[in-house]
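Section 5.1 Outputs to date
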Amino acid sequence: MPDWLSLLLAAVPIVLAAFFGTRQIRYSKRERSLPPVPSGWLPASGVVVDERSFGRRGRAKDGSVHRVRRPVITYRTVDGREVTFTSRIRAAGTPRVGTLVDVYHDPDNPTVACIAPRSLPNVAPALGGADRWVVAAIWVVAALVVGIIAVVVLQARA
């Protein structure tokens, strides 16, 4: 088997793993980041009236299980209509039932609304600001492994 083919067969899975790892980190960051409030939306005060729970996120040090939640919020528009919506944010740190939250809503369609970012102090991005460093580390490790394999394959022929 030619040297280049041996190196290619070893390098392709490593590069694919680095690519998909990078993609997953960026997807996770995009899904967990708090979207900006669109311009023209109106502020309102609301209350979390219910929550939808999803699969387990993990166990805390005290043994309790964290559940990923999506709060259901009710608020009143400027003209007095009561509107209920389910937040798009899914996280363990979302406000609990009974919590007062600030809300922004589309004046043309009040069912389109979001929780104000200041009402979500416990929801942080998956990796905080470390996502760039993690992606860089993935690619450095991938390059090192491919380099080591290249040295081993080329020295085996010598």
